[in-house]
Specification:
single chain, mainly alpha, transmembrane helix, NADH_UbQ_OxRdtase_su1/FPO, ComplexI_Subunit1, NADH dehydrogenase (quinone) (non-electrogenic) activity
């Protein structure tokens, strides 16, 4: 994959992902409200919230917090650009992890006890989901013969036929990556979890707006990984992938509204057990077939 293709993909992702992510966030709020017996906010309420944040004055405890968040947003856009331009899936995984590390460092830089607790929890979440995500990338390589996302279009059947166990494991950690209950330990987008906003406690104004936009882009990227399991040489498979992605997103919203937050010990243990059973076992089976 050429550098030019990645740059074009990154620019396209930077334009389209916030729009799609904003719509998905509004859909999340609307469906969540219906599940709770409420009418809910307008579909474009996430956009209104971010616009209001951008218009506010920046109030931060230091000058580095905003820089770290900007770096996190840039690396998120780059990870999306790499993936959606058909580039290396493993590289996309590494880049989005780097984005998460900048997010954690931004919280630590504030020296607020609440932010530091949120950063500690975010670090635990990264430790929990990262093994399964790496297993997902390796399993994709073994099933498709390449790390390049565009390689699925040369396949005769979707990769899920060979790595369905990995797909189930990835769905489990997807709840962590989308920051849904019961695994939203560091940061929740809903007020029902806690008064203090965890890792974003000291973030406000444009900085917090960048965090929200980054989260929208992350959602689009992660759901793209879900769709990758269902695409093959037939272009009509893209429709199937979109339908599956929407069903998975609805499932995540349902889980978010029906399960209470667990302790970090349960998060770490369950994610690693799933990574071993779903990831390692599926890869081992592929290696010896």
């Amino acid at each position: 994959m050429s550098l030019l293709a990645v740059l074009i993909g990154t620019l396209a992702f930077a334009v389209l992902a916030p729009i799609i992510g904003c719509f998905l966030a509004g859909l999340d709020r609307k469906i969540s409200a219906r599940m709770q017996g409420r009418v809910g906010p307008p579909l474009l309420q996430p956009y209104y919230d971010v616009r209001k944040l951008i218009e506010k004055d920046n109030v931060s405890v230091n000058s580095t917090e905003g820089t770290y968040i900007t770096c996190a947003l840039v690396f998120t856009l780059l990870a999306g650009g790499i993936f959606y331009s058909g580039g290396n899936l493993l590289m996309s995984v590494f880049v989005i992890t780097l984005s998460g590390l900048f997010f954690i460092v931004a919280a630590y830089s504030t020296r607020s006890p609440y932010s530091e607790i949120g950063a500690n929890r975010e670090t635990l979440q990264v430790m929990a989901y990262e093994p399964m995500v790496l297993f997902m990338a390796v399993a994709f390589y073994m099933a498709a013969g390449t790390f390049n996302a565009a390689g699925v279009f040369s396949l005769d059947a979707p990769v899920i036929t060979n790595i369905w166990l990995v797909f189930l494991g990835f769905l489990f950690v997807l709840t962590i990556k989308l920051r849904k209950s019961p695994f939203d330990l560091s940061y929740s987008h809903h007020a029902h979890q806690e008064i203090v906003k965890g890792i974003t406690t000291e973030m406000s104004g444009k900085t917090l707006a960048k965090v929200e936009i980054m989260h929208w882009c992350e959602n689009v990227l992660f759901l793209g990984w879900v769709g990758l399991f269902f695409v093959w040489g037939n272009l009509l498979s893209l429709i199937l992938a979109v339908v599956v992605v929407l069903l998975v997103y609805f499932l995540e919203i349902w889980i978010d509204n029906n399960f209470a937050r667990v302790k970090w010990q349960a998060l770490l243990k369950s994610a690693w057990v799933v990574a071993f059973v779903a990831g390692f076992v599926n890869i081992a089976v592929l290696a010896y077939l």
